[in-house]
Amino acid sequence: MPARMLAAILTTLLFALSGLSGRRLSNHLPGSQANLLRLILAAALLGSYAHLQGFGVGGPAFGWLFVSGCIGFGIGDLALFQAYPRIGTRRTMVLVQCLAAPIAALSEWIWLGSVPGAAQALFGAIVLLGVGIALMPGLTEAGPSHGLLVGGWFGTLAALCQAWGAVLSRKAYAVAEAQNFHIGGVSGGVNAAYQRLLGGLVVAAVFVIYLKFRHRHGSAARRSNWRDAWPLVIANGLCGPAFGVSCYQWALSAAPTSVVLPIVATTPLVVMPLAHFIEGDKITLRTLLGGVLAVAGVVGLTTTR
Q1: pTM, whole model, 2 decimals?
Q2: Which string of DSSP letters, residue by residue, matches the chain?
Q3: Are 61 and 183 in contact (CB under 8 A)?
Q4: Phi/psi of residue 181, each to 5°?
Q5: Could you say which of 26, 116, 147, 154 would form a disulfide bridge with 258 (CB–CB 3.0 to 4.6 Å)?
């Protein structure tokens, strides 16, 4: 298996574990607070490596990666957490994962001139179709009672930010390569993830400060359960913004978004069996069929040059 595909598949597995721990974490801490803590933990861990063994905040791609983090990590995650309560987790996943990949592929094609091959485009479409079939709510499932339009807007914004954050990372690698500055491989992915995390950390911190001042005269803040939250903060920080994003950047350094994002779009499918055994979530026949179709698409992508 090519290293770029291994990196994308590892990203999917780690993002799935991050999603499960993040859902549990939201029961103990407010979302904005939990997001900031996990980013601080990940930035401290990756920053230690980047400044001791890597190139820290240096290199010609820093500005591009920082902005990528502001958009993808910062604004994108804020929009995502606004969509969840309005249209539900499943609908949000369908909207974000199935929109981000084609938007990123089109944006990279227009801006960077990276045209996916016919086989890559076909298998990528199969992956997205499978994800959509597996995650689309059934006819008997209750729809959201309010906030459908606003939730859909936030979900679309999250998809745009995820797509454009990935394309900006690809631009960063192109800039670095043009100046003979190597960022590829696992080590480069860790350092690139750190530089990108800094952008997301700034946006998350500004948002938390804004909320603090906005609600300083309001009702009492939601009580935090720190005893149960800390293990989940650590797990979520390691699986998501630390190791997960490092693998994500590693994959993007070697493959276009038209290949990487369809594979990462299968993250919700990986979550489903884990959630079934851990939380008792029901898996339907339609879910299984969609999952098989998506996995077939991923296998096709991993074998296509």
Answers
A1: 0.84
A2: --HHHHHHHHHHHHHHHHHHHHHHHTTTS-HHHHHHHHHHHHHHHHHHHHHHHS-TT-STTHHHHHHHHIIIIIIHHHHHHHHHHHH-HHHHHHHHHHHHHHHHHHHHHHHH--PPPHHHHHHHHHHHHHHHHHHSPPTTSPPPSS-HHHHHHHHHHHHHHHHHHHHHHHHHHHHHHHTT----HHHHHHHHHHHHHHHHHHHHHHHHHHHHHHTTTSSPPPPP-HHHHHHHHHHHHIIIIIHHHHHHHHHHHHS-HHHHHHHHTTHHHHHHHHHHHHH-----HHHHHHHHHHHHHHHHHHH--
A3: yes
A4: -110, 115
A5: 116
**Tokens (6 digits) for 138:** 């059934």
Please report, for the chain, the start and end positions of each structural domain, with discontinuous segments joined by +. Answer: 3-303
Chain segment 199-227, per-residue pLDDT in tens: 999 999 999 898 888 876 555 455 667 78
